[in-house]
Predict the 3D structure of the following.
Amino acid sequence: MRWVRATQSRTSSAAAMAAMAVMAVMAVMATVAAAEHVVVFPGQPWHAAEPPAAFLRLTYAAAGAAQLDEGVRRLARVLAAVGRRG
């Protein structure tokens, strides 16, 4: 029983560290996106349970085609800038 608990503890710890890393990347992404006049929201709060992966929530209900095109271009610049930061 102790071995199982220790394994679960390490798994929980690894999951917590991974979640912190995702939150750190999201914070950087939000800062870089703000410079491009893009608002980014983490997707996790929109799930009832833990999502299967990290993702962004993109709102597009009130945007026209031209705005969506521009938004995608800006988001691409944000992702490229965040990727360069390492």
